[in-house]
Write a structure and sequence with these properties.
This protein is α+β, with helices and mostly antiparallel strands and 158 residues long. Helix content is 31%, strand content 27%. A 5-stranded antiparallel β-sheet has the order 1-2-3-5-4, covered by helices on one side. It is globular and about 40 Å long.
Length: 158
């Protein structure tokens, strides 16, 4: 509730939510990376470079997973970027019902560690990540990072 005479907070110029769809094919991975990178730059979001690099790697991993594991049931995927005053969130949605789990490290495997990487990047940045089911039976995998990276429990300057 506002007190008398106060002015409601307005969103910052870089805040908002953007969503785009792409076919679940290999070329969508670098295209999604570029789209997210360009969006952050265009909006002028005050995102630390190491956070941007982490987000781009997360987008690559999540889109790659959707292409490799969901394309048969979900020929199209959606990428969403939400930027708040102090955080940025990326998510990838597909229509495949399987909820993936991060595999444990196994040196004999050559793949399958993408979600471990996403979880580790998110944790190191002081963010959150999760998988949610959609009403249509698919899933959304998301990661939210602070605009300013967290180091030992304290934000580091941009």
């Amino acid at each position: 509730m506002e007190s008398r005479g106060s002015v409601p907070a307005r969103p910052l110029s870089y805040e908002g939510v953007w969503r785009f769809t792409a076919p679940a094919v290999d070329v969508s991975v670098p295209q999604a990376r570029r789209a997210v990178r360009d969006l952050l730059a265009r909006q002028g979001a005050p995102v630390a470079d190491e956070v941007v690099q982490g987000l781009l790697l997360i987008v690559s991993e999540l889109v790659t997973n959707a292409v490799r594991h969901a394309a048969l049931l979900s020929p199209e995927l959606a990428v969403e970027v939400a930027i708040g005053a102090r955080w940025v969130r990326v998510s990838v949605e597909d229509n495949h019902p399987y909820r993936p789990k991060a595999l444990e490290t196994d040196s004999a495997q050559t793949g399958g560690r993408g979600l471990l990487l996403v979880r580790e990047i998110t944790r190191e940045a002081g963010g959150l990540c999760d998988v949610e089911h959609t009403a249509s039976g698919g899933k959304i995998i998301w990661a939210e990072l602070p605009l300013v990276p967290v180091l030992n429990g304290e934000a580091t300057p941009i």
